[in-house]
Amino acid sequence: MRGTRIVMGLVTLVAASLLGTAPTVGGNLPAKQVAIEAAKRSERVVTLGQLTGHDRNRFAAVQQAARQQLLTQTHAAVAAVEHVGVPTQPTVTASLTQQGVRVPLTPAIRGVRELVIPYRRLTGKIQNRYLPAAQRATPVAGKVIALTFDDGPDPKLTPKLLKILKQAHVHATFFQVGKSVVKYPQLSRAVLAAGHELGNHSWDHPNFAAVGTRQAVRQVARTNAAIYHATGQLPTYVRPPYGAITRAEGRAIAQPIIRWSIDSRDWAYLNRQKDVQSVVHAAQSGGIVLMHDIHAQSVAAVPAIIKQLTAKGYRFVTVGQLLGQNTLPGLEYFERGDHRVAGS
């Protein structure tokens, strides 16, 4: 009988723990809460200023990571978390846990007052010394180049391009237009499923410098929502149409801006051979190539570009890999080792 009571007691304790109603310890806190409090006491406490090196661009990057984690955790609408983030006062404290960085939220959303942001979401956003070694920002070494494709997704050409890249074992970065993402969400999902990166290229391709800051921010926010609705992920990067952006827009958009160092001018040539020659001739290690997956000639040029650059010793990587995930809001990136204040 005594053995039976012990077993039944253990079963009750486990069941209560799973249900979040563990019995109290010493008549005070539940055992589960005691364990949580003990774990918190063992966490390393740092200030937000230490985490970010007092860099406002890093603060904005942590805000961005917090929003993605909130969406994952609460399944809220994108608009509901646009203005939710961590405090920006450098003296506010955060904690380094086994899973990630615990930060307070302002304001709370759906009862969530603090958030543990996984370290993988903070690569390149907080200083490396606060990250596990496996999550630290490290630009890829060697003779590498990043292919990027704008203006999609296109119902005929994007699937064809994905097939070409798969056959060549090449990953690329796609900057998609929100209006087309809404029409063809399955193609945005296919891009991510194939191991490529997905970026924001505005809602309907206006010149940001001409429409003004408010409209530019709306264009980006609307496309972020479209991409999240299609894929469950917020895009990290923004590429403004025509590469046009003002300093005020760069600050307000609060996402890393990706430009390019190798312009194929495929939109002007609409000629497969000229596209190939343009890219291969201008190629340089660490470069970012601008192309479009809405022109048949551009897509047709990709196999020859890959073949010829591979013969020259190049490896193809995504923008994130090229830059080691070390990208911050408020800055624009042209190639490896070349970044500037957005709009400067």
From TrEMBL:
InterPro entries recorded: Glyco_hydro/deAcase_b/a-brl, NODB_dom, Polysacc_deacetylase_ArnD
Entry keywords, A to Z: Hydrolase, Metal-binding
A Pfam family of this chain: Polysacc_deac_1
Domain NodB homology: start-end pairs: 143-317
PROSITE patterns hit by this protein: NODB
PANTHER family the record matches: CHITIN DEACETYLASE 1-RELATED, GLYCOSYL TRANSFERASE-RELATED
Record's protein name: NodB homology domain-containing protein
Organism (species): Levilactobacillus spicheri
